[in-house]
Design goal:
single chain; 279 residues; alpha/beta; seven-stranded parallel β-sheet; elongated
Amino acid sequence: MTDRHASPFRDAPTDRETAEQIPDTPQTRAPSYRLAFADEDFLSRAEMRPVRLQLELLKTEMIMEEMNIHSTIVLFGGARIPERPDGARTEALAGLSQYYDQARRFARLMTERSMQSYGRDNVIVTGGGPGVMEAGNRGAADAGGQSIGLNIVLPHEQAPNEYVTPGLCFNFHYFAIRKMHFLMRARAICVFPGGFGTLDELFESLTLIQTGRMERIPVLLFGKSFWDSIIDFHALAEAGTIAPEDLDLFAFVETAEEAVEAIETWPGAGEARQTVPGR
């Protein structure tokens, strides 16, 4: 079989290896002499931001393609939600620990279905961290399937949780590119109780759907009592800041089974499609 990427020219890895074996002189030690693509200091310059944005978009996209990931199920939720009530920092978090179990069971159920398509469709994707994210990747592992983790470098670095499939574990510098990868293959968005990050991800997703920048998919909010206690969606509609029909852009669910049913009965649920924002 012919390699469609084959080229008659010397490849970049070969030249990089050759460049590292040259004599050590003042000229070869000069930063200007380094190959541009192998010069980390050069790539980290502020002027190179457009290139770094493209690299973060391309690297994950190319690996997803190589791993034959056709579509995903997105799990958003709090990093601080513990597996067990006795591991919670506060009484309120202890009460929310039930959602760790719900996220884990939901991910297991969806992954069992995903494996019927050889793990290419409806693959679980999380932020790759602890809490609800860990529960999502863990549920996929319970089913014997793969899952994706989209981590990001934070001031207090956290390692990816141990349940993310290693070959699908990514790390980002740019929040914007990470958010794109959450939604580029999304068939459904499941949002569990969480904090600022969860709210940011929820409202950005709803805004993309509301404005027609992204096609409509199920947006499922786990735990109506939690969401009603922190956001008065109906007040937004009554004030006229959103349209009454915008309240239909999302639905509340309480259990993993309800969420699976909502996704499987969604119009066009069996269709293969991408939901790339802005493409």
